[in-house]
Amino acid sequence: MQQKNMSFVEHFGELRKRLMIIAFFLVAGMGLGFFIAPNVISYLQNIPPAQDFPMNAFHLTDPLKVYMNFAFFTGVVITFPVIMYQLWGFISPGLMEKERKVTLSYIPVSVVLFLGGLAFSFYILFPYVIEFLGNLADRLNITEQYGINEYFAFLFQLTIPFGFLFQLPVVVMFLTRLGIVTPTFLSQIRKYAYFVLLIIAGFITPPEIVSHLMVTLPMFLLYELSITVSRFAHKRMLKAEAERQRELVEQEQSNRRDDK
User: Fold this and answer.
1) Cα–Cα distances in Å, from 28 out to 31, 36, 68, 89, 252?
2) Residue 152 to residue 158: CA distance in whole angstroms
3) How far apart are CA 154 and CA 126, in angstroms?
4) What is the predicted pLDDT for the residue at 259?
5) Helix, strand or coil for residue 146?
6) At what angle do helices 148-165 and 8-45 cross, to 10 degrees?
7) Which residues partner with 163 through β-bridges?
8) Closest CA to 62 of 184, 146, 157, 168
């Protein structure tokens, strides 16, 4: 199957269709989030890191904000596989048949990495950060009175970004298959990439060195994994390109023999 050429209007129409599908599943996911919110919110209030926190509503709208935020992020998590598939569907007409099959196989990997990022931040990073902040409050003789809205906002701020940050190997593999980046290029910009990752970690975590390192080190490992993945994808791309060139040469030679 050959690449499909589409006009700007057709591209725009295709993009709108894909976005409408994503919006539909997001709304459906939010509906599910509204349904399961009371039980899950209660569970998150009583997990070991937070069960001793007296959570309060400091504003009349705080319970509504918590409900809405939970429903929205539930929708995001549920819709993530749909988002990835629609993104693939949008760009697939510009890919060759083999590239379509390869990039389609990235979607399950991407979903697993997304869930892995959420699990890492929730089960490893979040309990440590909560414990650190609680110990700091005790050391400073501060009585903890947390607002439930602030608690859940902090939970989402710490967990959701990791789901997307863990997409780095998949993104690099995809860009490598398209010939946009190479493993050599990724190795050359390593120090700049590390600096950017340090800044991102600073935005996610509290201003404390241990939690910052707990975020930064996995991100560094992800980048190194991305370079390894890029080498593998680059070799596959070169092999596929060599096979394509050989097929073109054989076809040209066959056409010449037919002309004679």
Assistant:
1) 5, 13, 14, 21, 53
2) 10
3) 9
4) 62
5) strand
6) 130
7) none
8) 146
Cβ–Cβ < 8 Å for 127, 48: yes
Question: Which residues, 6+ apart, have CB-to-CB distance to 1 below 8 Å?
Answer: 96, 97, 100
Q: How far apart are the first and last CA of the chain?
A: 29
| Three-class secondary structure assignment of 47-85 | CCCCCCCCEECCCCCHHHHHHHHHHHHHHHHHHHHHHHH
Which tens digit of pLDDT belongs to each residue from 35-88? 888 888 888 877 776 776 777 777 788 888 888 888 888 888 888 888 888 888
Structure tokens that stand for 185 in this block: 């290029």
**Among candidate residues 245, 110, 97, 111, the one with its CA nearest the CA of residue 173:** 110
Rg (CA), the chain: 24
Please give the structure tokens belonging to residue 42: 């209660």
Residue closest to 178 by CA, chosen among 106, 237, 225, 246: 237
HSE of 14 in the Cβ direction (CA atoms, 13 Å)?
A: 17
Neighbours of 6 (CB within 10 A): 13
